[in-house]
Design goal:
Blueprint: E1 4-10, H1 14-26, E2 36-43, H2 47-57, E3 61-63, H3 66-71, E4 77-80, H4 87-96, E5 100-104, H5 111-126, E6 131-134, H6 141-151, E7 158-167, H7 189-192, H8 194-205, E8 208-217, E9 222-226, E10 238-244, E11 250-257, E12 261-267, E13 275-283, E14 286-291, E15 297-302, E16 313-316, H9 339-355, E17 367-368, H10 369-387, E18 393-394
Parallel strand pairs: 1-2, 1-4, 2-3, 4-5, 5-6, 7-12
Antiparallel strand pairs: 6-17, 7-13, 8-11, 8-18, 9-10, 11-12, 13-14, 14-15, 15-16
Helix pairs in contact: 1-9, 4-5, 5-10, 6-8, 8-10
This protein binds nicotinamide-adenine-dinucleotide.
Length: 395
């Protein structure tokens, strides 16, 4: 095991800050088995954002280019947390320079680029350099708990999955133009939040074998240019110059999983739903539901009592559920849990793998770039279905 690992995060935006904080927290989670984690650099072309994040999260410096990070001898591990269309160039450059890379989802903005990245990651892994992708919701204790209930037979075989990831960051026509609104149909809400939902669907119900009924819709067709830099979903001041929205605000599709059927719906114009990843999975012996707005609990229905007394029960998450025992500073039942904690578990899992800790003594590994390609194949099939009046597209 190395004595220490130097860490950098490229992108100081909304999710970049979550990665920066997560590497800071990683050594404080669970037993002290990691080498020393050095917080070295935040890379962002916007020096103001880079500097602010470096100071806030205690990184030694900030860099204005990803190349500076690729060339730095004191950096071993890099998170890539920038616009999807920029992932390929940066990730391939970092892997070629021997940096272990944790890339944000979706792997890229095009399947072609994603496949090239997976090829590069396989070659890099043969040289001992890791490329992984952060599907953060697999780290959510409630979602991981429901998966366990399916896999250990408590719920039995899934029969029907119904999932939505509704967000409202684009519901105002005044929300400024940003990279999220540019790219081919399917690169909008479907790629942004549909990537998470499709991943969660497969995490619980197994591989999607075909999709149908694909629908993509652009509800707001033009957006004003911002007067300054936009971070994440911020509503900054805008000019009176508009540019067309190129991709989808709303998407829906049906999924044929290996064992069951599912309906999935995503939106970035769902007023009142800032960040609502919600699903219900109906199984042979009961059902479970999760709602990101109440991340510290799941709903569980088991068809085992008399019908007159049966119903969904609220299960508050605690140390008997995945990730929580030792994974929160105060890991008592009912202390609460949030999405930022999941970034901590993700960072910890990646650092454990890079440090060479055996899988049996680590958190579940991060997903591979091949899994990132698989996720994009599902999204691509939905876009193909939508372009062909909802036809069935096999995977
Ligand atoms: N896992 C999650 O829950 C989650 C949540 C949000 C975003 N994301 C993903 O994270 C990525 C970034 O999203 P975001 O919302 O943080 O974006 P953002 O727009 O808030 O931030 C992107 C940052 O990248 C910087 N940047 C642009 N070009 C750059 C370059 N060439 N080199 C270095 N920095 C550059 C920008 O200045 C900005 O600060 C996307 O892939 C997105 O899908 C994941």
């Amino acid at each position: 095991m190395p004595e220490s690992l130097g860490v950098a995060v490229i992108g100081a935006g909304m999710a970049g800050k979550a990665h920066a904080a997560a590497y800071r927290a990683a050594s404080t989670l669970y037993r002290p088995t990691l080498p020393e984690i050095r917080l070295v650099s935040i890379g962002d072309v916007n020096a103001e954002f880079g500097q602010a994040a470096a100071r806030r999260f205690g990184y030694e410096r900030h860099d204005a280019s990803w190349q500076a990070i690729a060339e730095a001898d004191d950096i071993d591990v890099v998170s890539v947390v920038i616009a999807n269309s920029l992932h390929r160039e940066v990730v391939e450059g970092l892997l070629a320079a021997g940096k272990h890379v944790l890339c944000e989802k979706p792997l890229s903005d095009s399947l072609k680029d994603a496949r090239a990245m997976a090829d590069a990651a396989r070659s890099a892994e043969a040289r001992g350099t890791l490329g992984r992708i952060g599907f953060t919701f697999r780290r959510t204790p409630g979602i991981a708990a429901i998966r366990e209930l399916i896999q250990n037979g408590t719920l039995g075989r899934p029969l029907h999955f119904s999932g939505r990831y509704w967000t409202d960051y684009g519901c105002s026509p005044d929300a400024p133009m940003s990279w999220r609104y540019k790219g081919a149909l399917g690169s909008g809400a479907l790629a942004d939040v549909g990537s998470h939902l499709a991943y969660v669907g497969e995490f619980l119900c197994g591989e999607i074998q075909a999709v149908s009924g694909g629908q993509l819709s652009t509800a707001i067709t033009k957006r004003p240019l911002p007067l300054g830099a936009v971070m994440g979903h911020d509503h900054t001041a805008v000019s009176d110059t508009f540019e067309p929205v190129e991709n989808d605000d709303v998407a829906s599709f049906s999924a044929e999983f290996a064992q069951c059927i599912g309906s999935l719906s995503v939106s970035r114009v769902a007023a009142g739903h800032a960040n609502s990843l919600m699903f219900e999975v109906f199984c042979e012996k009961g059902a479970a539901l999760f709602d990101q707005r109440r991340p510290s609990e799941i709903g569980l229905f088991l068809s085992d009592g008399p019908a007159s007394e049966n119903g969904y029960r609220q299960v508050i998450l605690g140390p008997d559920h995945p990730y929580i025992a030792g994974g929160l500073a105060m890991d008592a039942p009912s202390v609460g849990f949030g999405q930022n904690d999941a970034f901590g578990y993700q960072a910890r899992a990646f650092l454990e793998e890079v440090a060479g800790l055996p899988e049996s003594e680590s958190l579940p590994r991060c997903a591979t770039f091949d899994e990132g390609v698989r996720n994009m194949e599902v999204l691509d099939a939905v876009a193909e279905s939508a372009q062909n009046n909802g036809k069935r597209v096999a995977l």
